[in-house]
Write a structure and sequence with these properties.
The complex is a heterodimer of chains A (162) and B (249). Chain A has 162 residues and is an alpha+beta fold. Chain A is built from two helices and ten strands. In chain A, β5 and β6 form a beta hairpin. The longest helix of chain A has 28 residues. In chain B, α8 crosses α9. Classes of the chains: A alpha+beta (162), B mainly alpha (249).
Chain lengths: 162, 249
């Protein structure tokens, strides 16, 4: 800072013209930076998604033999016909999202990725999965089809009787 | 014959056109050799002089140069593969199979890209360990170590994003698992996964985003940091001579 600038700084409010413009410029860049960050976040977030509906039509209840576990691999759900009624489980492992498989001969659900194992009611037997497989909301449509909403996990177990 | 060829080369190098392109002129002296390095846009990042000892194989095992070599192979083969690959769900897997069975030399380029990618990850790690065990990360080279860490991460992200592009079962589930690992980040995990995939599922948006990251954003980031990494070797006192050589602190 030159002597004349120092003098200017002493007078008035302690800011000379150069310091004022530097502050103004830095402030403008900061505001523009925040705006750019917001713009980038909004741009990168898709507003419309062409993803399949969370509601799945699982077909007529008669398709499912009694005491059976049926995997629908395309939709990532199990439809289970137990003696007490029907229920649906998510087939997506709660560990890292792999598709689990029903092992008929062992009577368990097993994940091929990291070895988590579950009972057919969703509770964990062993493995790294932090949570049981969630029960999904299931109901019977007006046409008599079993419907499953994959976006709605049930907090309390609820069977569908047909 | 050799004499004649040399004289032709010498004649070429004394032409005006040559001088207009290569400003360092002709000659074999130390000054000329230094000018050749200093006046080239590509070479001026490097020191004009180096001790013979630090250029020996045992000093570095050439791991940094080899990492850069695999990167160069990956850029060239990658650009060629882009000519036959469409980053779309119906076409990606079929294009990859076409590269293997239909395109002339396609399988060679694809395998060269794949093996170079594996080699690059290995060499970058080996380079890191060599630098670490020699103590070459210590001041005044500590910031170049930080840039090296950035380059290691870019290498791993390049490897990860490229893994999805064949769009087969292995890549699909690897990215499903990887994106779920990203969602374990505290507080903003779900948003990171959503932005990364461009949706909730590994789908068309995710394939396109990974393609853009793999072919544009990450390679440009890598080139940017590689340039700084090389330039800083000179700025931080040249290649590390080894602790026993009593480098000045």
């Amino acid at each position: 800072m030159s002597d004349s600038e120092k003098e200017c700084a002493k007078n008035g409010d302690g800011m000379n013209r150069r310091q004022f413009f530097v502050k103004l410029g830095a402030g403008s860049v900061a505001v523009a930076g925040c705006g750019t960050a917001l713009f980038a976040y909004q741009f990168l977030t898709p507003n419309v998604l062409y993803e399949p509906s969370p509601v799945v039509n699982a077909g007529k209840p008669e398709r499912y033999e009694s005491d059976s576990v049926t995997l629908d691999p395309a939709n990532g759900i199990y439809v289970i016909h137990s003696p007490q009624g029907f229920y649906a489980l998510s087939a997506v492992c709660t560990h890292l999202g792999c598709l689990t498989a029903w092992k008929q001969e062992l009577g368990i659900i097993a994940c091929p990725c990291h070895g988590s194992k579950f009972h057919p009611d969703g509770t964990k037997i062993e493995g790294p999965a932090p949570r049981p497989l969630p029960w999904l909301r299931m109901w019977v449509s007006d046409d008599g089809d079993l419907m499953v909403d994959r976006s709605q996990a049930l907090s309390a177990r609820q069977m569908v009787r047909v | 014959m050799a004499k004649t060829l040399d004289s032709y080369v010498e004649q070429l190098r004394s032409t005006r056109a040559w001088h207009s392109m290569f400003r360092s002129g002709t000659g074999a002296g130390h000054l000329h050799q230094a000018l050749k390095i200093q006046q080239s846009v590509f070479l001026h990042l490097f020191s004009v002089k180096a001790r013979r000892r630090v250029l020996s194989f045992s000093a570095t095992w050439y791991l940094g140069a080899l990492s850069f070599g695999t990167f160069a192979i990956l850029v060239i083969t990658g650009i060629l593969l882009m000519l036959y690959y469409h980053p779309s769900v119906p076409q990606a897997y079929a294009d990859m199979k076409d590269l293997q069975f239909v395109v002339s030399s396609g399988v060679f380029l694809r395998n060269l890209h794949r093996w170079s990618a594996h080699a690059m990850v290995f060499l970058v790690f080996a380079h890191m360990f060599k630098v670490f065990y020699r103590g070459a990360y210590r001041p005044p080279r500590e910031f170049n170590w930080v840039i090296g860490v950035v380059l290691l991460l870019v290498t791993l992200f390049l490897s990860y994003t490229g893994y999805l592009l064949p769009w087969d079962q292995l890549s699909y589930w690897a990215v499903t698992v990887g994106s779920n690992i990203a969602s374990a980040v505290p507080l903003m995990g779900r948003q990171i996964r959503f932005l990364m995939l461009g949706g909730n599922l590994v789908n068309a948006n995710a394939l396109l985003r990974f393609y853009v990251l793999h072919c544009m954003i990450l390679p440009l980031t890598a080139i940017f940091f590689i340039a700084i990494h090389f330039w800083r070797i000179r700025k931080d006192g040249g290649l590390y001579p080894g602790s026993s050589q009593g480098e000045q602190k």
